[in-house]
Amino acid sequence: MSARHGIFRAWRPLRLPFFGRRTTQNLFSTRKVYNDDNVDQTSPPSTLKTQKGGTPETPAPAKSTRASPWQIRGMMRLVPHPLTIILAQDTESALPSGLLVSSFNTITLDPVPYVSFNLKLPSATYTKIQKSGVFGASAFSNPDIAKDFLLDKDSAAYRTALRKNVREGKTMLKTGKGGIWWMGCQFMEKESLQVGDHLVVIAKVVGAEYYNEFYKPRENVQASALIYLDGRYRTAGEPVDHFPSPQRLEDERFERTGKWK
Questions:
Q1: Which residues does 191 contact at the CB level (< 8 Å), separation at least 6?
Q2: How far apart are CA 86 and CA 185, in angstroms?
Q3: pLDDT in the model for residue 75
Q4: Please, what is the average pLDDT of the chain?
Q5: DSSP output for 133-199
Q6: CA atoms of 219 and 228, how far apart (whole Å)
């Protein structure tokens, strides 16, 4: 046998080093086959750049400035937030417990109204909401009420404020205390969500009424609930648009026909 034939006889297929579970086919594929937070796991192969040799090139992470809590707080102070009193009562206490929130809002209205708000844990008011399964939410126009519900919950001044402002055995404000509307809400514990030291409370509205007929929409434009804006309590100003919003038109249609759609 010639030397040339000996060379070809001794030839064997080149074996590549084994890297984990990556096969020879994967080594030369542009499809992502490893975990890397800097690359979108769902990106198609055509969107990934490749280095020489065919291995995927990891793109540099996007440059961004990390937002501080103080910066976000400053930003959100430029957005009006509605102020609402949350009151809860259980059978074990003579007095209800309450707190002032600026996060109360509707989630959906149809077919059943659902609302939400955020509170910080631990919370005496939340403990009573858990025990009773219900709470009341009141919009109001009196800034003194807001100050009363910011008092230390263990202080005598707070207990005095509760007796002064809240109906006995109820989750409503007393008449003449600036209440605008009240909603009776059923706590949905399974749907509620804890995020860090805060809880997003989800509830179904099971009852609602105005504290005074005077406060019905459009019968008195001065009857605006308090809002929180730029670190101050305020009321809404004059409208700046010249055309009614779709929601306003929907409300007027409901008043005429009794139907949402």
A1: 202
A2: 10
A3: 92
A4: 77
A5: SEEEEEEE--HHHHHHTTS-TTSHHHHHHHHHHB-TTSSSBPTTS-EEEEEEEEE-TTT-EEETTEE
A6: 24
